[in-house]
Amino acid sequence: AFRLSSAGRDVSSYRADGLICSTPSGSTAYSLAAGGPILDPALGAMVVTPISAHALAMRPLVLDPSAELEVAVIDSPSPVSLDVDGRREASLSSGDAVLLGAAREPYPLLTIPSFDPWQRLRDRLGWEPGILNGPGDKPKGMHWKTFDRLSNEHDALVLMISKTDKSVGQLTGN
């Protein structure tokens, strides 16, 4: 089992085969394979994804990248492997903890100005281009409604596509 803390506060305990902590660029590798989300590269967030969690309630979390995370081994009958980018770095035992945080200096990456990370994902994951013909196109015969923002009374926007002239958005509250 593992205990996750963020900025000195307990977040959750996990009964799982392991935990994956990743950045947006790492979210499309091991974390995605373990059921984690794909993050927009511009978010600058951290994802914690349990590996084969022993309970359905143990879900991936998206956390503030500026917070210092602590992952502690709280109950393991055998050593736990700490791997970083696929390389074994250490062996941990019950009571050991690892601190994770953002680097003081950003890691410089070269990018091509025309690079589209979403196109790369579509290519690598085999996503279909869908029903749209190009950027900004809307399917014919569909009614679109735009919500500029959510009101304070509502906390989620559920978007439904309808082939009628009825509203396609539904606000849900607490």
Tell me the layout of helices and strands.
Layout: E1 2-6, E2 9-14, E3 18-22, H1 30-33, E4 46-51, E5 61-63, E6 69-73, E7 80-84, E8 87-92, E9 97-100, H2 117-125, E10 154-159, E11 169-173
Antiparallel strand pairs: 1-2, 1-6, 3-4, 4-5, 6-9, 7-8, 10-11
Characterization of the model:
- The chain is mostly beta strands and 174 residues long.
- 7% of the residues lie in helices and 32% in strands.
- It is built from 2 helices and 11 strands.
- A hairpin with a 2-residue loop joins β7 (80-84) and β8.
Descriptive tags:
single chain, 174 residues, mainly beta, four-stranded antiparallel β-sheet, three-stranded antiparallel β-sheet, 2 helices, 11 strands, 32% strand, disordered C terminus
Strand content: 25-35%
**Distance N terminus to C terminus?**
32 Å
Lateral strand order in the biggest sheet: 2-1-6-9
Could you spell the SSE succession in H and E letters?
A: EEEHEEEEEEHEE
How many E-type strands? 11
Largest sheet, strands/sense/barrel: 4 strands, antiparallel
Give the helix proportion (percent range): under 10%
Give the low-confidence spans. Answer: 150-157, 162-174
Shape call: globular
Helix tally?
Answer: 2
Estimated structural class: mainly beta
C-alpha-based Rg, rounded: 20 Å
Mean pLDDT: 77
Would you summarize the structure shown here?
With 174 residues, this protein is mainly β. The chain has helices at residues 30-33, 117-125; strands spanning 2-6, 9-14, 18-22, 46-51, 61-63, 69-73, 80-84, 87-92, 97-100, 154-159, 169-173.
